[in-house]
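Standup notes, protein team

Yesterday: finished cleaning the Halostreptopolyspora alba set.
Today: Thiol reductant ABC exporter subunit CydC structure.
Blockers: none.

Input for Thiol reductant ABC exporter subunit CydC:
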Amino acid sequence: MIALARPRTARFALGVLLGAVATGSAVALLGVAAWLLAKAAEHPPITALSVAVVATRALGITRGVARYLERLVTHDAAFRTLADVRVRVYERLARTEPVRRFRSGDLVSRLVSDTDATQDLLIRGLAPPLVAGLTGGAVVTFCTVLFLPGGLLLGAGLLLAGVAVPLVAAALGRRPGRRQARARGELSTALVDTLYGAPDLVAYGAMDRAVRRVERADEELTRLARRDSVLMGFGAGATSLVTGLTVWAALLLGVAAVEGGTLHAISLAVLVLTTLASFEIVAPLPEVAARLGAIRASGERLFGVLDTPPAVTSPRHGPAAPEPEDSGLRTRALRVRYGVDEPWALDGIDIDVPQGRTVAVLGPSGAGKSTLAAVLLRFRDPDSGRVELGGTDITAHPVDEARRFVTGVPQDPHIFTSTLRENLRLAAPSAHDDELWRALRRARLAGEVAAMPDGLDTEVGAHGTRLSGGMRQRLALARALLAAPRVLVLDEPTAHLDPDTRDEVTADLLTAAEGYSTLLITHDLAGLDRVAWIYVLSEGRVLQQGTHEELRHREGWYREALRGLGRTS
């Protein structure tokens, strides 16, 4: 996590230097004030005190200005580093596949709380120890020159308060810190699940259980926060104890030295008050150490996102895009699996989607249909084999280029909480209204939109809740058509629709897709009499292939499925 701040090393170094000046000025201010008061008690000429008076004013001003500049510089560097980290996280998530590996609430916690831990580490965990090392060394050196036993005593006290106490606090806070990070993620997950699932929870009478889950997660986080406060209190109390003992010991040694004639009384005042002020240097360290466990756990969760291995490799530069007249798609010996010990999700399949034709891939759940869609839409790489567009392997293109060529409608398309216009322009930000209406007409949605009071400016609600299921699918298809792809992939586009709506939407989708090289991935047999060729998958292999007429007269899975629906005639 510290390495993330490497581009800001110079800024942090300046901040540490300014922090050392501010802390050193505070200690020196009390030391000079002690000398001034003790010297004034001897009633010297006013000129003998003028330098100390000026120094006191100068140190007071320097302390405030240096502290302000230190906060300004270190916070600026920390916030810039935090911005860089957030960019890295969002760039990683922009590749899509890490999003699917985490629960939504837990991912939110990683994006917010765990990412912010970088800032806590840099501001509270990195700068104070370095400042303490610089300033503490200088103060101990001064006190040692002033009075050797007092300097050694101060060094021992600072080591106890600045090293031993923080180490104990860090050891005590390691496990609670990890549990606190997990508890924060659990609370976020429970809360997000309850909010998003509220309609279903209410419908099935499960809202009380969901609320109790949120309450239990909150109670656990509160309990851990109380323990965290106890650790903070321990650190503050232990530091105060060490401070008091060190000051008393310095006073006793100093008084004995004054009585023995080896130390002047004014020097005693300077020594004692400088010793007292010196513990301001190490005061922040126990609290920081107690939080290191939580910061480390947050860092591990953050890097759990950043270090997720990519499922897709993207070359920086690829060959030229296939010419528009050559947009046929085919797979050759395509093999994919999700782990070295996992079975093959796709096991050597060959599929051809001729230019301008519609081809269907169907089969039971677990046949490999969704994996095929993920490979074609470049959400994961094949383990072996090729996916060719116009004779060129699409994995040779940068991912964004490949997705320009091949796009489509996913099984559960995301509709953003905005207007119809903005949801459509996601695919073509510069599209004019005429282009939007043209895409809506092709998707058979223009009539419904025109009937809405606000037309394209109609708000669709959260996740498109103001639209019917069929309208959401048609909107997603219109958005895909606006992207002007070479190949359309329709992945289970009617999976969540009732039978009547499903048949209607399937007919509309196939009509809208005419002229495109289209791959319809489905488990539903409606409308397959309109496609040019059908592939039946089972356990990652092509079980059957042919036209609708050929397959419905041939013994096998397709004929049995039609017979089960009463459509064999």
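Follow-up from PR in the comments: The chain has a mean pLDDT of 85.
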